[in-house]
Amino acid sequence: MATICSLIRQAAEAHSEHPAVRQRRAGGWCEVSYGALFEAVAEVGTALVELGLGYGEKVGILLNAGASWIIADLAVLCVGGIDVPRGSDFSLEDLSFIANHANLAAVITDLPPEPIERLREAAPTLRFVVRLGDPGGAGAAVIPWGQLRESGRALLAAGDRRFYQRLDQIVTGDIATIIYTSGTTGHPKGVMLSHANLISNVTAIRENLPIHPRERFLCVLPPYHMFERTVEYLALACGGCLTFTDKNNFRGDLAEVRPNIVAGVPRLWELLYQGVADRLRRHRWSAFLEMLLEGSRRFHRAGRGGAGAARLLGLASYPMHLLAEQLIYKAVRQGLGNELRFAVSGGGMLPAHLDEFFAVAGVTLLNGYGLSETSPVLTVRVPHDNPMGTVGKPLPGTELKIVGENGIEVPAGQPGVVWARGGQVMLGYYKDPEATEQVLRDGWLNTGDLGVLTEAGDLVIVGRAKDTIVLRGGENVEPEPIENALLLSPYLMQVMVVGQDRKYLAALVVPDLPAIEGYARKNGIDLPAGDAAAQHPAVVALVKSELARLHNGKPTTRNYEKIIRFRIIVEQWTLASGLMTFTLKKKRPAIAAACREVIEEMYREG
């Protein structure tokens, strides 16, 4: 069976002079060919072996996207190492936990000297660090990236073949990478993926989505995101060219790079849509253009089905669709570079209005679904079979089943928990057999997501059975640690964090009214009687200050983990109301349903 390493080696031989990677440098773009890329991988891999990196030892790669990330990643894999990726912009607490838990033998990073020393303290197994840039002040065991490559280059020139010997020894069942993702305890869990897992996913995607040599990919997601990483492997295995950008340059690079393929999380597509909507609102003919958009949507819906007067009205809107095409949609496609063959959305639920907008605009946006635990893709729509509102059919070799509350598989059309089986399903969680046993059973993975299979075999995701919140930007957030921190406040009795498939986190807060009344008396605040006291401006300000003190204002709280909106709920969640379990755990779906209007109001504010 092939591996990612052997596929990239074959691609380097077949497309030696073709561009593999492009990224911005001062004064323009830097381009690396397939031949040069694989030479660099061999240099770094050889140097790592010379430094004593053993087969199966773990290397932390704490880098952002770019050629250096790809070279480091492939070099570690090709010499039989296990890479542990994470962005260098994560908190030191997070990185230190991973370094220690994973027993890292080495780290490749662009972190400054002080955090590197913190990692050394956290991980006694850490033997050496490779640093991009000037290693000044970082200690004797910190090796500059350029020096590492020079060392490997000299060894290869002298006839050193250890890199190629290691590459040929790789066993597909061995662990290739450990991806740390959020866990229920607040500490991330290490998802173990084998070489077979990675190649299985890439091979299956290639069957569904043929990629042509030299096709241009525009990459904006961080490389530790398994979705982005698989896209990179897919592009390189097919002879495509990866161009790296970031959120600040993304829109400009769309027009400059003119990509054929773009992969992104729902938040990315929302930003593009919002840009169009903002321009339309500012236009002097905004009311007319909005009318055209609505007519165009009616026409598109009529073409997808429907009957009676609604269908006739939709078909009659064809002239409005033609005008919208000329005045709006053509500019949308030009903004995407005008050569986009398809785009893929993953890492979270694609909102229906975005799905429809891009379809009506003539942009082929394919919605997919998966998890880090599945390498990550399980399903994806394809250009010739792209039903809106779904995440498509399972990849070749992937099985899905929907399991009801009684543990029995349910037929098409009925909701339940999505279980998956296939070559991409993880080996388990590193050092956590208990968590592994909870989700893996006879080769089947309990995704924790709620879904429905249509009669046509497409999957529709309807919610999450587990507590992890996935924001629209693809970030995973565990709500319980945040809630527990907030409950340290003497003024808060119950808290539930929400935000699944939203832009940001929000919270429902049940106050401790007696404690708040005491606060008011102490501070000379005259509160109204009864439940109205909870909505007094002074109480709202108090709750906001408690959120800042206990969570939002903490230096370890990442931006996407902050509570942006909150609402005060007077009525407690109880066992009697059906909103708490017998063990006094929150029934999150039930609370969300009971407070649906309040939650929607929070998110309508922006």
UniProtKB/TrEMBL annotation:
User: Which UniProt key words apply to this protein?
Assistant: Ligase
Does the record carry Ligase as a key word?
yes
A Gene Ontology MF term for this entry?
A: ligase activity
Where does the AMP-dependent synthetase/ligase domain start and stop, copy by copy?
9-430
- The answer on whether this UniProt entry bears the keyword Ligase reads yes
Q: Which InterPro entries match?
A: AMP-binding_CS (IPR020845), AMP-dep_synth/lig_dom (IPR000873), ANL_N_sf (IPR042099), Chloroplast_AMP-bd_Enzymes (IPR052987)
Q: Tell me the protein's name.
A: Long-chain fatty acid--CoA ligase
Lineage, opening ranks: Bacteria, Pseudomonadati, Thermodesulfobacteriota, Desulfuromonadia, Geobacterales
